[in-house]
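Technical note accompanying the year-one report. For the benefit of new consortium partners, we illustrate the data format agreed upon in the data management plan: each record pairs a sequence with a structure-token string. No post-processing was applied to the example shown here.
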Amino acid sequence: MTHARAERAALSDLFLQVGPDAPTLCEGWTTFDLAAHLVLRERRPDAAGGIAIRRLAGRTAAVQESLKARYGYTGLVELVRSGPAGLYGLVPGLDRAVNTVELFVHHEDVRRAQPGWEPRELSPGFEELLWSRLRGLGRLLLRRSPVGVVLRRTGGPAGEGSRDVLLGGPRGGARVEVSGRPGELVLFCFGRQPYARVEPTGSPEAVARLRDASLGL
């Protein structure tokens, strides 16, 4: 089983466990909304433009609501569990390449919105995959950072040293170093700063600006 499939299965189980009205870290969204978002993203690419383009957000929201009405909560969860259709099923490895990080982040969006959460212990292979993806996405995710950012991975294999450094944000001026396990750094860079277990180092003003910044896609 790929990490994408494992995250998909675990998130689907959690959706059923907490029910349709549970909170998530996606502002204003319940678990029902998040399940509909995932189905729309994977099965209705014709309506997904509003995820990234503000002027198309109205149509995306309308289709998302229609999916909720058509399938209901358990139906949407089963569609999430069964995996994406269309092109994803035709191109080997596309689900793994495109959806692994998305599913990890949204799994944590549900987990960390519930009381008493603690970070999961991720396998070394999964941490390596998340770090690899973050190294590729870092500049995009940090493009709105008001300060320069250095991401420093902790807990990696011995001897990696300076390989675990990634620059993002503006090159000049204030800079903050953010240290943490790969999964926590992914969540931080995807805009979940208050819920990511990381250690920021820098001036108090620069750290505060970074914590309040709108990061992510």
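Partners are asked to follow this layout when depositing records. The radius of gyration is 18 Å.
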